[in-house]
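To assess whether ligand presence alters the predicted conformation, the chain was also submitted together with heme C. Input:
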Amino acid sequence: METNLGEYRETVHYNNHSGVRAICSDCHVPHEWQYKMKAKIMAVKDVYHEVLGTISTPEKYEERRLEMASAVWTKMKASDSRECRNCHAFEYMDFTIQETRAAQNHQKAIDTGMTCIDCHQGIAHDLAPGYLEEYNHVVKKLAAQPHQGPIDVAGIKSFLGTQSE
Ligand code: HEC
Ligand code: HEC
Ligand code: HEC
């Protein structure tokens, strides 16, 4: 847990000129759950789920990082990066003041239906070696599945074994 906290404190989502902060649950807990459920418990179960007990040292964290990141990417890709979109939206981006590379890539994303996490891995945490390969694996895996709508909330809830209040 310390590992993630330290890395995240170095990023613009922690400190920036406008003073808006994205906290763990902003990126990791679907919005509607925050009202219905105990968000804290969910955040922990959501991200660390069954591996929590096995991570006691930074070395062990690194051993499992790619696997955990892969689980997060799968959810973000499946939800069309919904948690990012609670704060950011292509519709409100002024491409005339964004640097050219960003504006061009965002136009391409709109045209081709790409989602935030397709290009923005590692915005809050360090990335494990081989992360792009693993990300491509996630994309292929999702593409091979029958489409279930934006996100399988019921499936995830039952996987986590939680009850709504
Ligand atoms: C709670 C609101 C919030 C959420 C959720 C959020 N962001 Fe941000 N994001 C911000 C703010 C605020 C900034 C900093 C803007 C500034 O520079 O003042 C920022 C900056 C950024 C930047 C530019 C700075 C950089 O790191 O290079 C990127 C890229 C970005 N966010 C992507 C994402 C993605 C991808 C997600 C989802 C995984 C996400 N954000 C989720 C609020 C949010
Ligand atoms: C096709 C790849 C691609 C996709 C998809 C994409 N981005 Fe970007 N984005 C970039 C690149 C490249 C940059 C410029 C370099 C950087 O900051 O990483 C950028 C920059 C940004 C910035 C900083 C802009 C600035 O002027 O400082 C933010 C914020 C951002 N992206 C958010 C998002 C969000 C939110 C989404 C999803 C709604 C998204 N991006 C989807 C490639 C992409
Ligand atoms: C701005 C959005 C954002 C914030 C804020 C954020 N995360 Fe993440 N988190 C991500 C993304 C995206 C991933 C997927 C891996 C990657 O691309 O870095 C991730 C991955 C993880 C992982 C999997 C292991 C890893 O390192 O990739 C854990 C655990 C985690 N986050 C916990 C946390 C905790 C705890 C906090 C608060 C201290 C936090 N996150 C804050 C976006 C965020």
